[in-house]
Write a structure and sequence with these properties.
Elements lengths: L8 E5 L3 H12 L3 E5 L15 E2 L10 H17 L4 E2 L3 E6 L6 H10 L5 E3 L1 H7 L7 E7 L2 E3 L1 H14 L3 E3 L4 E7 L2 E10 L2 E6 L2 E4 L5 H6 L7 E12 L6 E4 L8 E5 L2 E5 L15 H14 L8 E12 L13 E5 L8 E6 L5 H16 L17 H4 L1 H9 L4
Parallel strand pairs: 1-2, 1-13, 2-9, 5-15, 13-20
Antiparallel strand pairs: 3-8, 4-8, 5-7, 6-7, 10-11, 11-12, 14-17, 14-18, 15-16, 16-17, 19-20
Helix pairs in contact: 1-5, 1-8
């Protein structure tokens, strides 16, 4: 017999894009949801990635499943979040012998359902005049640009509009469980006070910090925090996302964001996702690599450099590039803690799908029969989080902190 979701209380840990999408999907299906974020919303990886809307073309040759997922979610995000998505397309550019990669690349994209169009080097430089004169091949793909902050705030606004509570600057310090089931979480309210919040289920959506959250329940979780440095220079030197026509590597993407050009990225590993910095060597490397695609980057004024930590699922002793960019939803009942779920891995492009999958798992666990509706429902504008009707009540009662 199906249960009433309104009688079931859930906690989401993590106020990045994924956690906010999870809170929205849960609230949309009727659950009583509270999200806890230790800092401000998007203060982790969500607020630091370069903002590429991935069609999946980058991954098609080596990871067709995530490529298909990216293409499917690209279409959905364009439909439900037009205010946070720029439909500026992308171009994969070959230089010299890169053209030899073209047949394999296009075949893999076709297998993944990603449309491509090969254009002449001359035409590529006509539509993107700042490309290098050394273009030997060019392929158009349906990439785009995400405003990461706006997209996350749209999911937050939708969650609040369906009754979810979002509490920032509220770090979870313990996950309490007894007799094989989760009981709730303990949250630090201030330096002198903690509170216990009972829950029927808990979702660990803490990204690169998900392993630390799982450890609060005495559980191992294989998450590889993989920092990547990015550099932004002043000037929008391309309109499309420009990628190197070769297997994924460091410094092979240029993403236009408003009046900036972002070069991404490097990749390494860290044991501490709170302590990553962009080095001078990485900055110089990225500008040099980006200038191979767009020479003007070499002389552009530096705007900023930073590192974002990818939450890759699995363990890897190299630099993490062999790990899939796919995601996993994990039911920790098999580990001895029923009612605790982790959603790990993935990319910003697939955050809605991540939320759908983990919410489906929770519905099965709770015996709730309510379908997902997030793929077909337009999101509210990001300003609604601060100025909408539900936001007004939230800020009057102080429940946002």
């Amino acid at each position: 017999m199906a249960r009433d979701a309104r009688r079931l209380r859930g906690v989401v840990i993590g106020g990045g894009g994924t956690g906010l999408a999870v809170a929205y999907d849960l609230a949309n299906r009727g659950f009583d949801v509270t999200l806890f974020e230790r800092g401000e919303l998007t203060s982790g990886t969500t607020g630091r990635h370069h903002g590429q809307l991935h069609s999946g073309a980058r991954y098609a040759v080596h990871d067709v499943e995530i490529a298909r997922e990216c293409m499917r979610e690209t279409r959905i995000l364009r439909r439900i979040s037009p205010g946070a998505i720029e439909r500026n397309y992308g171009v994969f550019v070959g230089i010299g012998d890169d053209a030899e990669y073209l047949p394999e690349f296009r075949d893999a994209c076709a297998d993944a359902g990603i449309p491509t169009e090969e254009v002449s080097p001359r035409y590529a430089r006509t539509i993107e005049p700042n490309l290098t004169e050394k273009v030997s091949a060019a392929v158009l793909v349906p990439d785009g640009t995400i405003d990461a902050w706006r997209l996350a705030l749209e999911f937050a606004a939708a969650a609040v509009g369906h009754g979810a509570e979002i509490r920032t600057y509220s770090p979870v310090v313990a996950i309490e469980h007894r007799d094989g089931s989760v009981m709730g979480v303990r949250v630090r309210i201030n330096e002198a006070r903690e509170e216990f919040f009972a829950a029927d289920f808990v979702v660990n959506a803490a990204g690169a910090w998900a392993g630390r959250i799982a450890a609060m329940a005495d559980l191992p979780l294989e998450v590889t925090p993989a920092p990547g440095t990015m550099v932004a220079v002043k000037g929008r030197l391309t309109n499309m996302v420009v990628s190197r026509l070769q297997p994924p590597g460091d410094g092979d993407i240029v993403v236009p964001q408003r009046k900036l050009s972002i070069i991404g990225s490097t990749q390494s590993l860290t044991d501490d996702p709170d302590n990553v910095v962009a080095t001078d060597e990485e900055i110089e490397f990225l500008i040099r690599k980006g200038a191979l695609l767009v020479p003007g980057l070499a002389d552009a004024e530096l705007h900023a450099a930073w590192s974002a930590v990818r939450p890759l699922y699995g363990a890897n002793g190299a630099d993490g590039r062999s790990l899939s960019r796919g995601f996993r939803c994990i039911d920790h009942a098999a580990d001895g803690v029923a009612g605790l779920f982790s959603v790990v891995g993935g990319k910003a492009t697939v955050l809605r799908a991540m939320a759908e999958d983990v919410t489906d798992e929770i519905c099965r666990y709770c015996a709730v029969d309510v379908p997902c509706r997030t793929a077909d429902t337009p999101l509210p504008g990001h300003r609604e989080y601060y100025h909408g009707e539900a936001a007004g009540e939230r800020f009057r009662t102080g429940s946002h902190t």
